[in-house]
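Annex B, item 7. Sequence and structure tokens for protein A, then protein B.
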Amino acid sequence: MIKQENIEQLFKVIDTGASIYSIAKEVSYLDGIALICEGILNQEAALGLDFEKSQQINRLIKECSAINYQKEEIRKAMQLAILKGLKASGRSNEQITPDTLGIFIAYLVQKLIPENRPLVLFDPLAGTGNLLVTVMNQLAQSLTAILVEADEQIAKIARVFLAMLEYNDDIYCQDTLTFKHIEADIMITDFSFPKTTEETMFPYQVFDHHKENLRDDALVIAVIPDAFFDPEHQERFKKELLGAYRAIGLIRLPQDLFSRRHKSILILKKGPNIREEKPAFLMADIPSFADQDAFQPVLEKINQWFRESTLQKG
């Protein structure tokens, strides 16, 4: 069982350590998070601190090592610290996908792929890594994570985030459209809201480029702004996307998850359409995750779709 006191205690350690490092080394709070997490992992304070500050950090590390944290306790404590760091740096909290959404995506993965199958999970727009970590914490099978993030500071946060959870991972700091030569079983990602018309087209570029990084029959679960589905893009959608992928489903998400506009979950499968597979397409509209009376009928509809589906899971 997750203990709130453990989350609060670990957050206090990370928060205090990040603050000490940010002042002593004149770095941002986000960089301080990376330094204190590296200290926890290495069981010693970083070089370059005076004796008093080193002692403070080592006491924090000792306090932290006395508790056997569950993965979700670590994730939630890290999330609190990262949110504080993003706010302090003037960055958008869109870098962190809501927990509820990550847990729901994990449910979709469990329905689509057998539990006994090892998986390579890939997020080409990883941000802090919270989405992939949330999903991985819900899955039982052997997992390998591959993350790509263009922002060096955020990539560093993602790296220590996964290291704190002892996941087998590779994190690459580069433009996602230059990343090649992997074979993932499933691509999971959350697209930011577009700021320009050109950015509305960005998901097409991502899907097209990364089809080469997915195994045959690999799945894609993408959280995508509804602008992607504007009627003016329909022909391009059919021509450029459905030539490489089969569209499996579209789940519209509650507006209260996001501060502005709407997003949906698009589910794709790499490979051509197979007419014998059924049902043809999953369509659902989630009014709210918080309102269980409204959510349960939609969840039952989705479960019924999976019961009837002949979509290959192996």
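Protein B:
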Amino acid sequence: MKHIHRFFVSTRLSTGDSACLDEDDSFHASRVLRLKEGDAIELADAGGHIYTASVTNVDRRVEVRTGGELETTAATVALTVAQSIPGGSKMDLIVEKLSELGVDRLVPLFTQNSVAAQGSLSDRKVDRWRRVARAAAAQARRTGIMRVDRPRNLGSWLDEADGGLIALVTETEGTPLAGAFQGMDGRLSLVIGPEAGFTPAELELLEGAGAVFAVLGPLVLRTETAALVAVSVIMHRAGIIG
């Protein structure tokens, strides 16, 4: 059976609507996938609804028309991951895989031991992360795109964090992650520190914000590995994967 590609639009749709893919998606559809008039795709709208659609015109912007709405399953958890920014290209990997795994929102964090210094990241880097998240969401056939925030420091983000709060730690004792979020319903936030760990002052901030300290076990994982493992555990327990 031919693979049906999924694309996203920033507006709400209904059956029979016409829409244009954005420039990046239009380029991918026409030049990479070689889609042509009459080809079938799927279209995810701003409300998380998925429609069958067909290509009606291939030009600089690809035009499509929606068909029927497809049935979707609502997520049982909205997960925010606040991730201390690692060095090199590791954040690209984290963005891609967390988007594939169904994370709702990613907050890149400056922490005391972050490799990236506050103010050192350009807007182009954040825009790149957002493009990576969008492509990964399409690959995973998600109903929406993971939101990628602009980087901020831990304290300012904790001031607005809502829902259950879990901090993945290696510096102190904690509850095994699989049991740490039991009883937390709906919205969860997971904080992942740098490989050098949180400072004592940051641990105090987290504790003061009501965070449950959690651990993954005796293995010492790199920050990007810890992010993927921790999110996989949460999504498995929530019934989203596995």
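Comment on protein B: The mean pLDDT is 91.
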